[in-house]
Specification:
Blueprint: E1 11-15, E2 18-22, H1 34-39, E3 56-64, E4 67-73, E5 79-85, H2 94-109, E6 120-126, E7 129-134, E8 139-140, H3 141-150, H4 158-179, E9 181-182, E10 191-194, E11 197-200, E12 207-208, H5 243-257, H6 267-276, H7 289-295, H8 307-316, H9 330-334, H10 353-359, E13 391-396, H11 397-415, E14 424-430, H12 433-439, E15 453-455, H13 461-465, H14 469-478, H15 481-485
Parallel strand pairs: 13-14, 14-15
Antiparallel strand pairs: 1-2, 3-4, 4-5, 5-7, 6-7, 8-10, 9-12, 10-11
Helix pairs in contact: 4-5, 4-8, 10-12
Length: about 500
């Protein structure tokens, strides 16, 4: 439709092969109900149709039990995906119930903001039909599997696959932890590739965990859950915070090997296999089998604490011992889990904090080469010999700076000068340049020297994610993911 056409009186629009008159803005400036006029027409799904004014259909992308998806051109020439959900919200038949189920699920997930969740940009109800405008992805995980098999591979290369599933696990854990939701339909065709990252989509079955059970609008026990990837408890109408992890484990095996752990062909066969039989994990590498077996445990409480812990086990090749309260992450560290490779000397060059922000640019610093790193030897206490070891006292952040300055003051009060204890050295590290500049001022017993401060600017979250996988997983143990994404865009503290 031409820009400004509605301001010039009656115009026409193309809908479903017909030219229909639309009343535009009247000369007295009163808007006419052109949207209502379109709403009274049956929705048409064919190229060049506009089910929503300004959204022109281009070509179909696929169809499933819950509806059809088309590629469309949105206002401004942007390409989007548009989903037409089967059924009518004004109907009481089974498809109408399903449409209502999808609408309720959308209400649950529309507030979720995460880089690995496919964004929902518009929801419309047109004459009782549910239409959803979404971000357009490049392909789904099943498409990527087909590409790999066409060049002779059994499945997606393991390292590539784990990077995809780590993205999905992060999104699923956020849905569970912050919103108390389970997706309940994790499968390759619902994990979409955008660039080289995966985004979780198709939330038609999303349920909250408050009631822990759900009723089925279908005949049978499934309630719309795909039997190939369904966890045992969902066959009985029960959900848990570990249900999506079970599905993710099946996706991993299928995408890696081209085979699933259960070979049933009918819902009845799959029901019996998922709920009673042991999975066939023989196609997997031997190191992966105990990890996948744990994620596929019939007893939901015997699975990993969260999806990211499951992926981490695949990355490291070992199953971490859970803390007594069943939580991973920081609690596991406190219970004695070691973090090898973290004691390394950092060779810091003096930086003037007052000039640090001016000198800072968006490019991330080059990582230290192995030649720049030396291992610290183990320090053995020798109290009887009176031998003293040089000690570096490190203060992190504003609180750490205040603690270091308070310690220096006490040493001066007792010994008269910091020079009396030359074995002690001090270093303050902060992401706030102003705080470091403040550390250089004050009375001599408190003011830090230039070479006793180091400015460590924040990076954008993408820079941290581009670090080595091992480093990022270690950092995630002590800092919640939501803190990473809350980092200010100004990269100032």
């Amino acid at each position: 439709m031409r820009k400004g056409a509605l301001d010039k009186g009656p115009v026409s629009t193309y809908v479903c092969g017909e030219t229909l008159p639309l009343v535009g803005r009247s000369r007295d400036g009163v808007d006419s109900p052109q949207i209502s006029r379109i709403a009274r027409m049956p929705l048409c799904r064919e190229p060049n149709a506009e089910p929503i004014p300004g959204y022109r259909l281009i070509e179909p992308l696929g169809s499933g039990g819950f509806g059809d998806v088309w590629k469309c051109e949105a206002p401004g020439g942007l390409l989007k995906a548009i989903k037409f959900v089967n059924g009518n919200l004004n109907s009481l038949d089974i498809e109408g119930v399903r449409a209502d189920q999808e609408l309720k699920a959308l209400q649950r997930v529309k507030e979720i903001r995460h880089p690995f969740v496919l964004s929902i940009e518009r929801i419309e109800i047109i004459q009782g039909e549910l239409v959803i405008v979404m971000e357009l992805a490049d392909k789904n995980l099943h498409d990527r599997l087909v590409e790999c098999q066409q060049v002779g591979l059994p499945g997606i290369p393991r390292e590539e696959l784990l990077s995809y599933l780590r993205d999905a696990a992060e999104a699923l854990d956020l849905m569970n932890r912050q919103h108390d939701l389970q997706h309940l339909d994790i499968k390759p065709r619902n994990l979409f590739l955008v660039g080289n990252r995966v985004k979780v989509a198709d939330f038609g079955l999303v349920k909250d965990l408050e009631g822990r059970t759900f009723s089925s609008p279908n005949s049978g026990p499934m309630g719309g859950v795909t039997p190939l990837y369904a966890s045992p408890e969902t066959f009985n109408g029960i959900i848990s915070k570990h249900s999506d992890q079970y599905s993710l484990a099946i996706v991993y095996m299928e995408m890696l090997t081209g085979k699933r752990p259960f070979n049933g062909r009918t819902p009845r066969q799959l029901f019996l296999q998922h709920t009673r039989e042991e999975p066939d994990l023989s196609p997997l590498p031997e190191a992966d089998r105990p990890i996948i077996a744990k994620a596929l445990a019939k007893n939901m409480q015997q699975r990993f604490p969260c999806c990211l812990d499951f992926i981490k086990a695949l990355l490291t090749g070992r199953i971490a011992q859970n803390a007594p309260n069943g939580r991973g992450g920081l609690d596991a560290l406190r219970s004695g889990t070691s973090m090898p490779g973290t004691l390394e000397d950092l060779f810091l060059s003096p930086v003037d904090p007052s000039q640090a922000l001016a000198n800072y640019n968006d490019s991330s610093p080059e990582p230290l080469s192995p030649e720049d790193l030396t291992r610290l030897s183990v320090t053995v206490a020798q109290p009887l010999s009176g031998s003293l070891r040089p000690t570096l006292v490190v203060g992190l952040g504003s609180f750490g700076r205040q603690a270091v300055q308070a310690l220096r003051t006490r040493i001066i009060d007792r010994f008269g000068s910091l020079d009396k204890l030359p074995l002690l050295r001090y270093l303050v590290i902060d992401t706030d340049a102003e705080s470091l500049a403040e550390a250089l001022t004050g009375p001599p017993e408190q003011a830090m020297q230039q070479n006793e401060t180091h400015y460590l600017p924040l990076q954008r979250v993408g820079e941290y994610r581009r670090s080595t996988q091992k480093d990022f997983e270690q950092a995630r143990e002590w800092m919640p993911l939501e803190k990473w994404y809350a980092a200010p865009r100004s990269v100032e503290n």
